[in-house]
Specification:
It is a single chain. This protein starts with a helix and ends in a 20-residue tail after the last strand. It contains 9 helices and 19 strands. It has 2 domains: about 290 residues, Gyrase A, domain 2; about 80 residues, Elongation Factor Tu (Ef-tu), domain 3. With about 375 residues, the protein is of the alpha+beta class. β16 and β17 form a beta hairpin.
Amino acid sequence: MSESIHSDARNTVRGSARRFEQSPFRHLWETPETVMGVCAGRFYPTLNGEDIEACYWTLRRKAMLYDVPERPVEISGPDAVAFLERIFTRPIGNLKPGRGRYAIACAHHGGLFMDGVLFRLDDTRFWYVQPDGALETWVLAHSEGFDVTVSDPRSWVLQLQGPASFDILRALTDGAITEKMGYFHAGFFTIAGQEVYVSHTGWTGERGYEIYTQADTDCPKLWDRLIAVGTPQGMQFGSIASMNIRRIEAGILDNGTDFDLSMTPWEAGLGDFVDLDANDFIGRKALMTTPRGRRLFGLTCERVPGYRQPILDNDKAVGNVTAGASSPFLGSWIGYARMQDAGDWVGRTLTVYDAEGTLMPCTITDLPFYDPEKRIPRGLDRAIP
C-alpha cells in the first residue's frame, strides 16, 4: 500500500547535477534503487529501495537516520537582531543563545514566503535553517542599511529521529547530551572527535535531533560513528518517504507544497507565529487588515488522495490535495486539503479524486491528526505504538 504513494517518484528523467549540491554522505547510503529529488539546491533521496512502512515503524519505535536537504544560512553582525526582526514575524531579541525558534517570513502583501527554524549561536550570530526557496537572495535584498553579513556556513544536516534518538545521541556525545537539553535547545557537541552543532528538533513529530556538520567535518568519520552506535539500538537509514508520512500525521507543513505566497499565515494555520504588536516586519501592514480565516486542513479517505487533485462539494471544486499518505498508525489514508476559501470545513464530507482519477468520499479534519500538544517530540509522551 505504501508503494503506491510514491509511484510518481519513479517517473524520473536523467538530469545534470552540475548546478546542485551533492550530499557528502551520498556514497555511504546510495543503492541502485535510489531516486533523488532536489530541494534548496541540494539533492536528497526521495526513495532508497527501502520498505517504507517498515521504516515508518522503525521511526515510531526505534530510530531513523535521514540525510536531508535543509540549508542553514548564517546571518551575523551588530545589527543581526534588528534585521531578523524586520524579516520574521515574531520577536528575535529575546531568543537566548543555544535556543531555536520556529519563524516564518512574509512578503509585503502578507503572503507566506518561508518557514524554518532560527538558531541563535551567540549574541550576534544566527543560523536560519530553510527548506526550499530563495532565502539567501531574499535576505540580501532586504539587508541594505543593516550592518549584517549573510553567508553560507557550508553545513549539511542529518536528522536522527525516533524514541531511541536520545540514547543514541547521549552515547555519541559521551554523555554530554542529557535530559536537560529541552525541545528546541541546541549547542556544539563533540561526535567522532569533531565538533558539530546538534539541536533537539526535527521534521517528524517524533522525539528527535538534528546534527549539523561544519565546513571542515570529516563526514565519513561522523557517519561511521553514527552507524556503529545507532545500529545496535535498531537505528536504520531511510529516504524522506517514511519521514513524509509522519510529518503529515503531525501536521508539519512543506513550503511550496502545502503553502505558498498566495496564502497568509492565518490561512495556513500559522497565525500563532505572527506577533502584530512586535516589530515592523515585512508584511505586517498587510496582515493588520487581512481576514483570519483558515484554508488548510487535514483529510481522511479510503484510498490514496491524488496529489493536487481537486476536492469537490457536489460538482463544485472547493479545494485541492497538497499531500497524501497511508498512515499505518491511524489505519487510514490521510492528506492535506487546501481550500479555495476559508470556512468551517472541519467535519464536512466532500469528494476527492484518488491517484487513479476515481472519485471517493473524504472527511475534512483539523490538524494535526494526533498529539496537538507535541508531547511526543517534547519527550513527554514516551509510549511506543
